[in-house]
Amino acid sequence: MAGREEGINVGANHLLAFPPEILTLIFAELPVATIASLAQTCSVLYELSRDNHIWEQKILRDFKIDIVKDKTNQSDPSEGDQGDQEAFQTPYNFYRWILFKYGKSIGLWQRQTLGFYGSLVQVSNTYLSKAII
Q1: What is the pLDDT of residue 68?
Q2: Which of 35, 1, 39 has its CA nearest to residue 18?
Q3: Residue among 56, 37, 44 at smallest CA distance from 19
Q4: Residue 125 CB-half CA count within 13 A
Q5: Nearest to 103 by CA among 48, 58, 52, 50
Q6: How many domains does the chain have?
Q7: Which of 29, 63, 79, 82 is at 20 to 30 A from 116, Cα to Cα?
Q8: CA nearest neighbour of 39 among 49, 26, 30
Q9: How many CB atoms lie within 10 A of CB 62?
């Protein structure tokens, strides 16, 4: 990691004494608020908090969306505005800008049953015909 190369003196009991792979696994298990707090402590943890693997795991665990599988099924669009797509290319940005704000409403609009689907208002022709006569 860049912070280790910059000469940060890390003691045996310090969080940065762990290898980056272990820190990534630890970060993936933490709540989002804790990851954000750790990212504010130093540049090494800030860089680590942006790791794609962490946010892929958070998205899968929190929202049941497998973006790793979805990435392999996507084809490159040849037309259209790609500005929005570039903004959300990383799992971190997708979580930050979409799922964190709107993730709790995912699935609320979907019908849970396939039974009768009626309406609240029913118009009767008999009433209309009597009113006209």
Answers
A1: 83
A2: 1
A3: 44
A4: 0
A5: 58
A6: 1
A7: 63
A8: 49
A9: 15
